[in-house]
Design goal:
little secondary structure, elongated, three-stranded antiparallel sheet, 214 residues, Pectate Lyase C-like
Length: 214
């Protein structure tokens, strides 16, 4: 129609148009179940957008505004959310191996039951997030997980070097094999009502390989 504004969503590699959306903004738009693999959303306002069960593998969301967006059940393997604002976003039951969230703001976000193996949450603000019952063999270097709900999650292989876990709930979480680095854990709940004091984990000592044989 004459005067209608159309927004083009393009492939990040080829530049081909994947989808056209009518409207002046993508905020609040409905993408449930959409095929948007390798889509380029970088820098866009997607506040409140609905991506439930969408295929967003290798999509680029760097620097996006995604507050209250919904990604529940979405395929997000290899997607990039570096520097994005994801306040109270919902990633429940999403499949997101290798996803990037470096420096992202995820305050109050819901990530429970999600699969985030090898994801990068370094330097992310994850205050009060719900990442319970999730697969979290991720990099949390220098991330802020103050008062995060991590109950029942699998943290084997996770890196918490310099991570802030003040008041976090780690009850029933699988910590075997996790590298706590120099994590700050004062007030963290470890199960059976046990809270940790004002301690800081020391980074694991590394030795030259030959010393293990002496």
């Amino acid at each position: 129609m004459p005067g209608t504004t159309m927004i083009e969503i393009r492939h990040k590699g080829t530049g081909d148009v994947i989808r056209q959306v009518e409207g002046a903004s993508l905020a609040g738009q409905y993408f449930e179940g959409a095929k948007l693999e390798c889509a380029n959303f970088a820098g866009m306002d997607l506040t409140g957008a609905d991506f439930q069960r969408a295929d967003l593998r290798d999509a680029d969301f760097t620097g996006c505004k995604l507050d209250r967006a919904t990604f529940s059940g979405a395929l997000l393997k290899g997607a990039n959310f570096d520097g994005a604002s994801l306040l109270k976003a919902d990633f429940t039951d999403s499949v997101a191996q290798g996803t990037g969230f470096h420096g992202a703001n995820l305050q109050g976000a819901i990530l429970r039951y999600a699969k985030f193996a090898e994801a990068d949450f370094s330097h992310a603000n994850m205050t009060a997030v719900d990442i319970s019952m999730a697969e979290l063999a991720c990099d949390f270097t220098e991330a802020n997980l103050t008062k995060a709900d991590i109950r029942g999650s699998n943290l084997a292989g996770a890196v918490f070097d310099g991570t802030i876990l003040l008041g976090a709930n780690l009850s029933d979480a699988k910590l075997a094999g996790a590298d706590m680095g120099s994590a700050k854990v004062e007030g963290a709940l470890m199960g059976h009502g046990r809270k940790l004091g004002s301690q800081i984990f020391k980074k694991k000592e590394t030795r030259p390989w030959w010393q293990f044989w002496s």
